[in-house]
Amino acid sequence: xxxxxxxxxxxxxxxxxxxxxxxxxxxxxxxxxxxxxxxxxxxxxxxxxxxxxxxxxxxxxxxxxxxxxxxxxxxxxxxxxxxxxxxxxxxxxxxxxxxxxxxxxxxxxxxxxxxxxxxxxxxxxxxxxxxxxxxxxxxxxxxxxxxxxxxxxxxxxxxxxxxxx
Length: 165
Hints:
By secondary structure, the chain is mainly alpha-helical.
């Protein structure tokens, strides 16, 4: 009886060890500054760094205010990250910042603190309050189906950069 118990214990031990090795631990990708908005984009860490880089590189700064648990933010994030055109513009022509907290600059909340909210700042460090979305009660918000308007506004920020500065 002892040898059979020993054999059974050994079989159970080997089986459980193999089972433990077969079960892979869930690995999460490391949190990056992109927060899902585009992993190929170079993101700035802070608003101040974004302003510095915008001035230094003579590129507009695009500031995306969002919250992780906001369903509207999640929808816009997916549309933005899935759009080749938006990603290319962001990579090549903009200094990019996405933040999940309010800044101390009240110019970044000209009509209130809501999310999602996207504003553009030109290299002269002027917030472009004239580049708005389609809603009159939340001028700087966009929905996933507003992505073509957001892309047009990105192009508008670039055009104003060339004509005004």
